[in-house]
Design brief:
The structure holds 2 protein chains of 2 kinds. By secondary structure, chain A is mainly β. Helices cover about 0% and strands about 45% of the residues of chain A. In chain B, strand 4 (about 35-40) and strand 5 form a beta hairpin. The N and C termini of chain B lie far apart (about 40 Å). Classes of the chains: A mainly beta, B mainly beta.
Chain lengths: ~110, ~120
């Protein structure tokens, strides 16, 4: 059971837009920045979004992040077959056991 | 080229120890916090431990606290994870990752390919 809750799977057609949600609490998302990672099959994770909505160099603006209260959302527009991957949200948890926590991951299928 | 290369994984019996290493290159290693993240077979990501740039701030997941020790040698551009009292549930692919900041945050912008740890008798 992950501290952050993500839908197990989402799907959309090529060219469409999809959003992936990440729900937490005041001890994590509510008071800390959120990051998003993409993990293509059999590869290491890749940082897509950090500090809620910032994109590292080289990440296309098709990827966007937002946060409201204790939830965060990753948006992907202009879906491509190459976007099929697992997506994870992550944030700092300021509870007694302080540390980084991840969501359980969302499998994106581009139909 | 910015690169992280993990080593030290392998098959180990329950209760034994293992030391993972991560060699960094292509960036100023001593300017950034570093982390270990693991992924059990078919499962999601789990943060294991992190260390600030000067080792002044260290954190562990509850699942490894008291058994694992993270350390770094900035002179050698290397990160380490000493794993003691290993359990079957520690079986995973262990990734070394670079933080975006000098202090521990949750933005890991560089990842290694990982090293596999299998705990089994």
């Amino acid at each position: 059971q992950s501290v952050l809750t993500q839908p197990p799977s989402v799907s959309a057609a090529p060219g469409q837009k999809v959003t992936i949600s990440c729900s937490g609490s005041s001890s994590n998302i509510g008071n800390n920045y959120v990051s998003w990672y993409q993990q293509l099959p059999r590869t290491a994770p890749k940082l897509l979004i950090y500090d809620n909505n910032k994109r590292p160099s080289g990440i296309p603006d098709r990827f966007s992040g937002s946060k409201s209260g204790t939830s965060a959302t990753l948006g992907i527009t202009g879906l491509q077959t190459g976007d099929e991957a697992d997506y994870y949200c992550g944030t700092w948890d300021s509870s007694l056991s302080a540390g980084v926590v991840f969501g359980g991951g969302t499998k994106l299928t581009v139909l | 080229e910015v690169q992280l290369v993990e080593s030290g994984g392998g098959l180990v019996q329950p209760g034994r120890s293992l030391r993972l290493s991560c060699a960094a290159s292509g960036f100023s290693f001593d300017a950034y916090a570093m982390h270990w993240v693991r992924q059990a077979p078919g499962k999601g990501l789990e943060w294991v431990s992190g260390i600030s740039r000067n080792s002044g701030n260290i954190g562990y997941a509850d699942s490894v606290k008291g058994r694992f020790t993270i350390s770094r040698d900035n002179a050698k551009n290397s990160l380490y994870l000493q794993m003691n009292s290993l359990r079957a549930e520690d079986t995973a692919l262990y990734y070394c990752s670079k933080d975006s900041y000098s202090y521990m945050s949750n933005g890991f912008d560089i990842w290694g390919h990982g090293t596999v740890v299998t705990v089994s008798s």
